[in-house]
Amino acid sequence: MENISLIGFMGSGKTTVGKLLAGRLGWRFTDTDALIESAAGNSVPEIFAGEGEAAFREREAAAVREACRGVCQVVATGGGAVLRAENVAVFRESSFVIWLTARPDVVVARTERAAQNRPLLARRDGDLLTHVLKMLGERGPIYQAAAHLIVDTSDRTPDAVAAEIQRKWEKWTQETPEAG
Ligand code: S3P
User: Fold this and answer.
1) Which atom of ligand 1 sits closest to the CA of residue 33?
2) Which residue owns the Cα nearest ligand 1 atom 4?
3) What are 154-177's pLDDT values in tens digits?
């Protein structure tokens, strides 16, 4: 396990916290959505619109394999990357896996202004909070089963979250010498 992978719902802070954490550790930062976009030459919403979700998930599985091949990296993942068991296996084999959580109202506050950048939030029947609650209910157990550690990000600065993860990672590598 030579990476840290951040999993969790849209708006949980994976990219923001991941960049800060990588800076603290002196590690590389990798973002699976960014890998997908550069391989496709298209944005995530354009891939969803042009190729559909199934094709996006294929691209995502390839990006997960590529991202987790390195060492000393913080890997920020797309919120749905855990939906494929093969991705979860790659994360757990290569990384200390951290589930970043946020209260549903916090997720809404962080995502509502740019919900159109997230096709699975843009395409909904009712209001954003109801939609987020439904998706969180479906995905919560999947994130939980995939994670080695859970860190809540609600009402906290990204740097405070990054500092907590750094402390826990250092503690964990001391207690589990074969891990680091
Ligand atoms: C998705 C989350 C997005 C992106 C895509 C699908 C999901 O990433 O991969 O829109 O299924 O939750 P973020 O979690 O970085 O927003």
Assistant:
1) 9
2) 78
3) 999 999 999 999 999 999 888 876
